[in-house]
Amino acid sequence: MLDDDENPCPHGEQTRKHCAVCRDLPVTKRIVVHFSAGGTHYHRIHDCSALEYGQQQVDDRGGLRAEIKWAYEDLIKDTRDRCTVCFYGAE
Ligand SMILES: [Zn+2]
Ligand SMILES: [Zn+2]
Prior knowledge:
By secondary structure, the protein is an alpha+beta fold. The protein is 23% helix and 15% strand. It has two domains: 1-30, no CATH class; 31-91, no CATH class. It is elongated.
């Protein structure tokens, strides 16, 4: 069982219990996804080949790799797209 304090809702409430929308929804398992600050997609796995490829391009330009961060998918899916490689590629 997830601790509710560790489970902020996508509407900005601290916990789902405080949110009028989420309160009544069934609790679904949240998906953790990975992304780099400079990218436009998020990834199911942190060592996705597409993510690594993007980082490689930064290397080739002599730039600094962006830090790989993580987020809950429901919080990030409105601003970024799913990576098709690691979400659909292996199926
Ligand atoms: Zn909510
Ligand atoms: Zn990916």
